[in-house]
Amino acid sequence: MKTFEVRNAHFDRLVNTAGLRWMGQNTNHATPHSAVLAAMEKCIRDEEFHIYAPPAGLEELRHGIVADLGLEGQAALVSDGAVASLYHVCHSLLGPGDEFITTDPTWNWPMAFARAVGAKVTQIPIYGEEYGYRLAPERLKAAITPKTKVIYIVDPNNPLGSACTAAEIDGIVAAAREVGAYLIHDCTYRHFAHEHTLAATRYPERTLTIYSFSKWLGLAGMRVGAVVAHPDIIEKLSAAPPNNLGSNILSQRAALAGLGIKAEWFPGVLSQQRANQKLIKDAADRIPGLSLPVFPSNGNFVVLECERAGVKPEALVAAFQKHDIMIRQGAYHTPNFGDRFVKISTTVPTAWVEEFVELLPTMVEQVRGQNEDVKLF
Q1: Domain range spanning residue 345?
Q2: Residue 370 predicted with pLDDT over 90
Q3: Are residues 318 and 340 in the same domain?
Q4: What top-level branch of life does the organism fall under (predicted)?
Q5: Residue 371 pLDDT > 90, yes or no?
Q6: Is residue 341 predicted with pLDDT exceeding 90?
Q7: What pLDDT shows up at residue 46?
Q8: Residues 6+ apart with CB under 8 A from 347
């Protein structure tokens, strides 16, 4: 059977597992605000689904995204989720012989998009105490060549949860500006960060900011996001977008309602997920060999290192899967460092986290020294 068939069947089984605790995909399972549900219900009752949305997105939503980022003077192009924006940007800006630089680990799909158009991908390792689990601007500058066309940073980093400081953003921008490279600043997890600096405030002419409603608002299955950039860049991107008939209008209505209630609703989500992180940290501290290398995480997830405990990530994932708890093996994010860790999502009900930490000591003992021959994605 073809790999894509096996992979799809794997996720189909997960989706159709009733009661599965989704703790591996950074999805947000907080109870939605009533205004968001009401907006979706009204959209369905009014049968808006018969029509196409505006090609660049609802005007109110476009302006709301720019305002949420505080990037006055920039423009938004609404997409079918942040990953669709990344696909569009990579296919529009890159070509054969161009170089795409990112970190290791990073979000894998933009590398696949870059390679698909013939670009060379270069990864700069950031996993490990020797790197501080972050990208030093001088290391980025050393990796840049005359062919560097795009620099891609996920900030806060997925899966690590580390976030660039303002000084690091200044250095990254300086390195990009020196060669005239585009800087894709993937801010999918920005809303969970303790502090965050947008590169577009330093390099507005060539920074493309990737925005998502999947994580902070919990609309992962609705597929709505955006790319925000200088109007000249958006003009170029709008010439041939993947979806020139407008993104899902139901999703856009939900996203627009979400922006309206964000100040009221999101602080509770943030507080709960940070408390969930602490529960996992406390549990890991009680088990020899386990650790959280980045704590607190600036994302809605944590990395749990298990290598020193003699535990293979895949074995731990498979053990929890038998209890209908889905966590993610490190190899999903990085083949070079994936044997060291698992990733656990924290925008989930506290009861899920409590179940996870209660099982953790038993699961570690059960799989220590084992290799799990199972297909995971």
Answers
A1: 3-32+266-367
A2: no
A3: yes
A4: Bacteria
A5: no
A6: yes
A7: 98
A8: 26, 27, 28, 29, 30, 215, 218, 269, 272, 273, 276, 300
* Residue 214 binned pLDDT confidence (cut-offs 50, 70, 90): very high
CATH number of domain containing 226: 3.40.640.10
CA distance 230 to 93: 14
Distance of CA 202 to the CA centre of its chain: 22
Domain check: are 27 and 80 in the same one? no
Does a structural domain hold residue 373?
no
CA-to-CA separations, 88 to 91, 183, 196, in angstroms, rounded = 5, 14, 25
Residues 187 and 327 in one domain: no
Residue 335 located in a structural domain? yes
Q: Do 288 and 302 meet the contact criterion of CB atoms below 8 Å apart?
A: no
Q: What's the CATH code of the domain at 20? A: 3.90.1150.10
Residue holding tokens 């989720």?
Answer: 81
Q: Are 159 and 303 in contact (CB under 8 A)?
A: yes
Structure tokens at 34: 């009533």
